[in-house]
Amino acid sequence: MSDMKHRIVELLSSAANWLVLSHEKPDGDTIGSAVGLANVGKRLSKRVILGCPDPYPEKYSFLYDGLELRVLDCIPPDFPLEDSLIVCLDTSKIERSVPGLEKELPRHTIVNIDHHIDNEMYGALNLLEADASSTGEIVAELLSSSPWGIEKREADALYVAMVTDNGRFSFASTSVKSHMCAIMLLKAGVSPSEITEKLNANLTSNTLRLWGRAFSKAEVFCGGLAAIMWLADSDFDATGTTREDTENLVNYLLRIKGVRLCTLGTEVEGGTRFSVRARAPYNARVIASHFGGGGHDLAAGCTIHEPIGSALAMMKREMEERIEAGISDSR
Length: 331
What we know:
The protein is an alpha/beta fold. The chain has helices spanning about 5-15, 30-45, 60-65, 135-145, 150-165, 175-185, 190-200, 205-215, 235-240, 285-290, 310-325, and strands at about 15-20, 45-50, 70, 85-90, 110-115, 125-130, 220, 225-230, 260-270, 270-280, 295, 300-305.
């Protein structure tokens, strides 16, 4: 065990109260990592609160049933200052966590565990492994090297974290270590077929109608190298869906033959949210960071604070310029 992991295990062991935080608009990795760690805390008789600025999607409810989950707009007033620890999972920037958390830095000990290369290292302890395919992979290795090990419920959550972030071991981030971690979780009792069914067999007819609207607007440009599609407020209203129903939708654009760079824009309060995906030699993180966002080289996100029409034009122009300049993932 590395010195950093050893120090984190010691802090987790000594603190009686854990506040385990996921990032805003939570995805499978931040949820699975947090739930896996929270279940260990319960096993150790800690008081554990799961917190997030936004609700967890219903599709992951099979993981967090029985845990104390709160949607937070601040650090809970009943969370003690003494004998306590805050753990942020998969959260590269502190502003993506609970509002006001940055003001709590002098008062609370914060452990920051992440795999985003642009992590701002805001914790008292920072465990960053940018070569990991998911934060769940890091948490799994941390727990496996601890005195506690990993039991089935924790393994299920960490496996969900991995497969939702590495494309079920299909993305370039997948490594030998990823597969070794999966073997460890399977030995702890994970059933891949059961997890896959729970994650996949939950699309509603309304979600399919929403996706159909997005596909009908898809545009391929830059000689077939790039693709873009979008959804407005009216699309969600007409189909009775929410932004949660767009999870993984953008990845379908990469299934178009020849497309190496793509994005999905969704109208949100105060602007337009973009999910950006890339294949080498292009870089999603470079494009997202141009608009103040971030993420990974092949998967990133950002918000452009403009109406959807002008925001789409700005994003499309940026993608065109990157492709024309030949900017690769080495930059």
